[in-house]
Amino acid sequence: MKKYIIDIYIVDDHRMVCEGIANIINQSEIGHVSYSFNTLETCWQMLEKRRPDILLLDISMPDGDGISFCQKILKHYPKVKVIALTIHDEYSMIQRMMTCGAHAYVLKNSSSGELLDAICHVWQGHEYVSPAVAEILDKGKLSSVILTEVEQNILKMICSGMTNPQIATELRLSTETINWYRKRLLAKFGVNNTVSLVRIAMNEKII
Q: What is the pLDDT of residue 91?
């Protein structure tokens, strides 16, 4: 493998993941991880001061979603190349991330070699998706997340502005159960707040 000097940032809310990825990249000698961040806000504060060549970005973050953050980065700093590095293997998630401008999409269960290939491809000006992601795209899965009937009903109520207690009363379930369903919906759509959940549901006409 050719050796490159690529400046890289990592954005992931798990410190051990950041450390492990940084070790892989630094030992490969194709690039160097200069900073890692556990929140989107701390990353943005650094981006305002200094930009990397490539930014490895997780989608599910504690203070927002990586898809919206990717759009924000590319709007203000178009020279930064963004690689999605995530556990999300849903067709809809891949589609939205790539549509918003991500230069590559790699699953976290990919090999270290695939990650390094993605970094090299993107740095050379090409797009990249890992083999597993390419297979998902080739199968042409439905762009919408698959929901159960109960999840569909709860999502409709959430989008209408109903609170957890109100939904619980309507469906004759406990508030704790509705809270669990709400968290499950957030996880399925790869977002961290209700506003993002409603926006995606409306944009994709799921409800």
A: 81
